[in-house]
Sequence to fold (123 residues):
Amino acid sequence: MNAISFSLLMTGVLLNAGAQLLLKAGTNAVGVFAFSSDNLVPVGWKLATEPHIVGGLGCYVLSVIVWILALSRVEVSIAYPMLSIGYAVNALAAWYLFGEAVTLTRLAGIGIIIIGVYIVARS
Fold:
């Protein structure tokens, strides 16, 4: 895998991870909600106009474009496992940004994921 292919893959992974983090920040800003026939429009509007959620959706759109570019250069059996790196990025970013717990068990799981991605990338 060359540097351009790797860069496209990692950009796609980071955009996808960023999208998740922005969506979480958006739902934190909106607060707990439930959809019902009575509040479907007000809650839907609140979600659709929340800047973090809009940004997260924008990151998803960009990640799809970058991902298509990456798939034109890399086998999907190599590219798709790379998305697992997003688990590690999101766990660490959620700990830093949102104060979410990152236990020893989660760290062990992240370590296993990283080792697996390394093995797939080297194959």
Q: What stands out?
A: Residues 3-122 form one domain. The radius of gyration is 17 Å. The CA atoms of residues 42 and 85 lie 36 Å apart. The first helix runs from residue 3 to 30.
